Amino acid sequence: MERLLYWRGLELQMLVDKVLYISAYGMLVLSDWHLGKLGHFRQEGIFVPPMQLQGELARLSGLLERLPVRQVVFLGDLFHSAWNREWDDLMEYLQGVKGVDFILTIGNHDVLPDAFLRDSPLIVVDSLSLEEGVVLSHEPVHVSPEILNIVGHVHPGTEIYAKGRQRFRLPCYHLQGNVLTLPAFGQWTGLHICRKTVHNRLFAIMGDEIVEVL
């Protein structure tokens, strides 16, 4: 399932897969994958479940098979902190995908040495602009109100209350003013809970559908 937003006639598809698809550009946008995070924890002596890199890559492969994609934009925090073997596995995977450009807008966790990025299949930028008045970046940048800024960074989520005092914490898309924040694509990122106000819109991912929180 998907939920549509429009900006100056440009269709933005919010998918339950925690990615944004912009069909006019064949562009898949995802944020805060934090690959290598479990490996980083293991190096620090923290017990975590076995790493699931192949499962993570299979999620992206499924999207590339399902949608006509020419560009994949990683909105920062693609990899978590220092190098580990998962970086090499990721680069090998990206090199094997033909006909798709991979673009990284640098995030605060993208701290690998420049040489790693230079030798990678990634196109590395601070931000990316579309002609419809859209800027993609890891964190919000100072743009005019006429520009839509698509960002990541905070891993937005919301709480849904159900019968029997049940409470569910769910990832969500968060739109406030001219800033659209995407949910974290990574599985081990946690949530920053956003509250519904008169100034924002929240779109919660509930299984196979996206529901606006009213």
UniProtKB/TrEMBL annotation:
Superkingdom per UniProt: Bacteria
SUPFAM superfamilies, A to Z: Metallo-dependent phosphatases
MF annotations from Gene Ontology: hydrolase activity
Entry-linked InterPro entries: Calcineurin-like_PHP (IPR004843), Metallo-depent_PP-like (IPR029052), PdeM-like (IPR026336), Pesterase_MJ0037-like (IPR024173)
Every Calcineurin-like phosphoesterase domain range: 28-116
Protein name in the entry: Calcineurin-like phosphoesterase domain-containing protein
Organism annotation: Sphingobacterium paucimobilis HER1398
